[in-house]
Design goal:
Blueprint lengths: L9 E4 L4 H17 L3 E7 L21 H19 L9 E7 L2 H11 L4 E5 L6 H6 L2 H8 L4 E4 L10
């Protein structure tokens, strides 16, 4: 019989997008197949491309820590996920975690600290100058990770035909 410390989680970084939801669905299926717990991670940051990202979760005209808004958004995301995907209620053990920092760096740090077996994450798949200048969190994680990384795109994402 395996000791619970021998079971390394599947790390699922989320940004509350439809791509994150698709990645969580994929990770859920993998967790069932491999008998692994899920560790759902959100890295709290104030992205330069989307200032005020967490403001929708905070009450107006009051001062709040950005972490409080992120925690509310994570709870709302997970509640909505459970509501939209009732099959997730029979999921393997799920734990959520919030950390502050640069997303790609912190994702890799948490993967190492928690001895994750793999990372499953969503990607928007941006292209063009914006992508060239900013890079992609998923791309940086794929290039630097020492464990397998699965990148998932949402089926609801718009596609551009050539």
């Amino acid at each position: 019989m395996k000791d619970s410390s021998d079971v390394h989680p599947i790390l699922v970084p989320v940004d509350f997008s439809s791509h994150s939801e698709a990645a969580l669905l994929c990770a859920l299926e993998m967790a069932r197949c491999f008998g692994r717990p899920l560790l759902i991670l959100h890295v709290v940051h104030d992205p330069g491309t989307m200032p005020g990202y967490y403001s929708r979760a905070l009450k107006k005209k009051q001062l709040h820590r950005i972490e409080d808004g992120a925690a509310d958004m994570l709870a709302e995301f997970l509640h909505g996920f459970g509501k939209n995907h009732p099959e997730s209620r029979n999921a393997p053990l799920m734990e959520s975690l919030l950390v502050k920092g640069l997303p790609s760096t912190r994702i890799l740090e948490v993967a190492g600290q928690r001895k994750a077996s793999m990372i499953v994450m969503g990607s928007r798949g941006l292209t063009g100058l914006k992508q060239l200048m900013l890079g992609s969190v998923a791309e940086r994680v794929v290039h630097r990770a020492r464990i397998p990384v699965t990148v998932v795109k949402s089926a609801r994402a718009p596609t551009i035909e050539p």
